[in-house]
Every structure is written in C-alpha cells, then in structure tokens.
TrEMBL record:
SUPFAM superfamilies hit by this protein: S-adenosyl-L-methionine-dependent methyltransferases
Coiled-coil residues: none
Example of a GO biological process term: methylation
Transmembrane segments: none
Taxonomic superkingdom: Eukaryota
Keyword rRNA-binding tagged: no
Species name: Elliptochloris bilobata
Alphabetical list of Gene3D superfamilies matching this protein: Vaccinia Virus protein VP39 (3.40.50.150)
Protein name: Methyltransferase domain-containing protein
Lineage start: Eukaryota, Viridiplantae, Chlorophyta, core chlorophytes, Trebouxiophyceae
Length: 279
C-alpha cells in the first residue's frame, strides 16, 4: 500500500537479520511482556475464545511468546488434549514454561522454532492459534500454507492482527518522516490490516472458509502513567521495532533529529486523549 503521492511505502524486511532483530526485540521484552500492556492478555483470551476448543483437542500455538494463548488452551482441552507452543525467542518461552509449571499443566510444551522451518506432522492438530504474532512472520503467505498442512481436515486457525494505524503516535512519527525526508512508511500492521486482503490470503492458502471480524479496542496500550512516559515508550518502540526499523532507512543523526519533535507531538496527543486513554 502507498501513502499520498507516487512513492512506494517502505516496509523493511532484511532477510539477513530480520529474524535476529525480532528475537532481540522480544528478548528485551520477555520479563515485562505480560505486565506492561493490558492488550496482550485481552487479545490472547479473545483468540482462544474464538477457537471454541474442545476437551481432547490438539492445539498448535504459533508465536507463543509467554504462553498467554497456550496456557489458556491447555486448560480448555484438558488432560486428554495437548498444546504445543512455538516461538523464536527462548527467553519468552522460559516465562511460559515457568507459568505452566506453576499452574501444574502437563499437557502443554514449548519449543523454540521458526514457522518457516517447523517439522510438524501433516494433519497433526485440530486447531492453530496466533495472537499478535502473524504480522512478525517474514513470509505470511508461506506460513499460512504450512498451517493448512498441519491442521486436520476440518481444523481451524484463529489469529488476530492489528489494523492501521496500530498506535496513533505511530502515525505522528510517519508524518514527521514524510515531512522531513519524503519517505512514506507503513504501519507495522499493514500487511494484514485490510479484512478483504486477509480473507483472500486465507482462501488462497488453502483454507475452505475465512471469517474476518474487525473490533476496535480503546485503551492506553503502553500502560503509561503520564503523557511524557507514553511518548518515551512510543519512541523506543517505533525506533527499535523489528518490522519497520527506522534506522534501516535513516541515519542515526536523522533519527535523533526527529526525537524531540516526536516526543512533543506524542505527549500532546496523549494529553488530548487522556480521558478515554486512547493513545
């Protein structure tokens, strides 16, 4: 997708180090992932709810992270069911394993793995889940084709993905980059931001049916106590994000020159919206 004008939008996926950046990003977030935002647990719970899991079912949780989906799923499928959680980042999975042990769950296991290279049995799962992770896949279409192969006939995939703009402050930064450097960046959620595109992608990957539901959630996604704290958090997230790393298209000096204008605008945005907490 393109922004105004004829220049193509920029979404950097450097094949040489993209996955390493994803691992590094989530490695740094593993200790606080469950607590620094209200929307991760909420999205995971909604994903599992929509899967309508039944006792005894076999579940695959992709981009499992700290196990928010997998642990919930393990409770629902019961001791006769099983759950496999897969993620690139072992420090995230370490948190998931600890929680599984604390909850006494023996029907769930977590493995480090790349969705592009998983050796899983065809038809080995009744359901596949992915919460807030599909947008990080380097080859989304290829991953969906693999999921079709791993699911039994009649199995289902349930995942969520953000629409654009993922955060209002991200649009602020993109506007600054456009104004100062003439580069139209895309939001992190753009590859799956359009429901008809998602539906078509699922059908093209081999799914027999595709239901796409759009919901809007309004909250302080970053859990910031003040507008200034929110602005700082959004700066760190947007300048270090693995999907569209700003430093891949701008020099360090160019990025730093955008810092204060962004902080000022993002803090003002948060202050305007502080009563409804939609940051």
């Amino acid at each position: 997708m393109s922004s105004a004008g004829s220049s193509p939008s920029v979404r950097i996926l450097d094949p040489d180090n993209y996955k390493a950046r994803v691992v590094a990003m989530f490695d740094g977030r593993s200790s606080s992932y469950d607590t620094n935002s209200v929307f991760h647990p909420r999205l995971a719970a909604g994903t599992v709810d929509r899967a309508n899991l039944q006792p005894g079912e076999r579940v695959l949780d992709l981009a499992s992270g700290t196990g928010l989906c997998a642990l919930d799923a393990a409770q629902r499928v019961g001791p006769k069911g099983s759950v496999l959680g897969v993620d690139l980042t072992d420090t995230m999975l370490a948190v998931a394993r600890k929680k599984a042990e604390q909850q006494g769950l023996r029907n769930v296991r977590f493995e480090v793995g790349d969705v592009d290279a998983l050796a899983l049995p065809p038809g080995g799962f009744d359901a596949a889940l992915c919460s807030n992770g599909m947008l990080y896949f380097q080859d989304i279409a290829g991953a969906l084709c693999q999921v079709v192969r791993w699911l039994r006939r009649g199995g289902r995939l349930v995942f969520n993905t953000p629409v654009a703009p993922m955060f209002k402050a991200t649009s602020v930064l993109h506007q600054l980059v456009q104004e100062h450097h003439g580069l139209p960046l895309v939001d992190a959620g753009m590859p799956l931001a359009d429901p008809p595109t998602v539906r078509a992608l699922l059908l093209a990957s081999g799914f027999a049916a595709a239901e796409v539901t759009v919901t809007e959630e309004v909250h302080n996604a970053m859990g910031a106590a003040t507008p200034e704290e929110y602005a700082e958090k959004m700066w760190r997230m947007n300048t270090m994000h693995a999907i569209a790393p700003l430093r891949s298209v701008l020099s360090e000096q160019q990025v730093e020159a955008l810092r204060q204008p962004f902080l000022d605008a993002a803090a003002e945005l948060a202050n305007i919206n502080i009563r409804d907490s939609r940051y």
